[in-house]
Amino acid sequence: MIKVGIIGGAGYTAGELIRLLISHPEAEIDFVFSTSNAGNQISKVHQDLVGSLDKIFTDTVNPNVDVLFLCLGHGNSVKFLKANTFSENTKIIDLGNDFRLEADKVFEGKSFVYGLPELQREAVKDANNIANPGCFATAIQLGLLPLADAGLLNQDVHINAVTGATGAGTSLSATTHYTWRDNNFSYYKPFTHQHLGEINQSVKQLQNGFDSDILFMPNRGNFSRGIFATIYTDFEGSVDEAKNMYKAYYKDAAFTFVSDDNLHLKQAVNTNKCLIHLHKHKGKLLVTSIIDNLLKGASGQAVQNMNLMFGLEETTGLQLKATYF
User: Fold this and answer.
1) Active site residue: 45, 61, 131, 135, which one?
2) How far apart are CA 65 and CA 181, in angstroms?
3) Based on the domain organization, do 218 and 191 belong to the same domain?
4) Based on the structure, what is the number of domains in the chain?
5) With CB atoms counted within 10 Å of each terminal CB, which end of the chain scores lower, N or C?
6) Comparing 77 with 75, which gets the higher pLDDT?
7) Residue 274 among the catalytic residues
8) Residues of the domain holding 174
9) Do 218 and 230 contact (CB within 8 A), yes or no?
10) Is residue 158 located within the same domain as residue 301?
C-alpha cells in the first residue's frame, strides 16, 4: 500500500484528496497535517466524512511516507519544505503554484515535473516530484494542446472562463461571502491571471515559435464547483478536421474526451473528466472545455499523477460519476 501524508488538511483540495484516498484500493492515509486544527477530528471539518474516517489532524509529520501531497496556499509549499525534512524516497505532489514554471522547478536538489498527464505522461511516470497544474490552466491547456501540437496557434487566443466559489479556497474575503456571491457574477485579474505563465509554457513546449497573445478573462460564477471555459482563435480548416485532430490527440487520454454535443457544467462536476466541444464560425474555431476545479483541476489530477508515479492504472480510485440532478 502507498502510505500518504497530506499537508494543509483543512482546505477544499485536501478534503477532496481525503475522499478519494479513503476509497483508493492501493493507498492509505498515514497522517493529515493542519496546524490550525491539530487534535481535532478530521470529520469535524470535512463533515461528510463522519463514519468514513476516524482520524485526527496532526501538527507533526511522518518523514517516511511514500508520497506527500502539499495542499497549501500559493507560496507556502517552499516554506513548508524548508522547515520539514522527508525521506529521499518520499515523492512530493504540490497542488500549489510554487514549482510549476520552468524557472522554479528545482528546489534544494529536488526537481519538479509539470504534472499535466495529457502533455507529460511519460515524464510523470519517471518523476519523484510533481507540480500539479492549476485549475484554470488545466481546462485551458486541454482546450489548446491539439492546436499547439499541430503548430496551428498563429494568431491571438481569446479565453473567457468561469469558476465556482471553491476556486477561491476556504478563507473568507469580500468576494467569497454568500451574500456577495449569490445571484452575482464578476471578472477578476483580467489578462493577468497567474495561470497564464504555465499555459504559455505548455503551448510553447509544443509550438516553440508561438509568439501571439493569450488573452484570458477569468470570471467568478455563483455556483460551488466547476470551470466552464470558452476559447476561440483563427482556424482555416473545417470543424470535422478539428474534431479529428482533437480526437486523435486525446485517443489515449484516460479522462479527456471530445463531445459532438454542446456541453454544460454538470457533465463534468464530481468527475475527473475534461470534456471538450468544438464549433466553427467563419474563420474562428470555438473550443469549449469543462472540468471540476477541485478534481481534474486539483485533487483528482493529483491522484491521477500519483497513480502514474507508482505504476498503477491511471484511473485507479477515480471512477467517479457526475451528480447530474
Assistant:
1) 135
2) 39
3) yes
4) 2
5) C
6) 77
7) no
8) 135-293
9) no
10) no
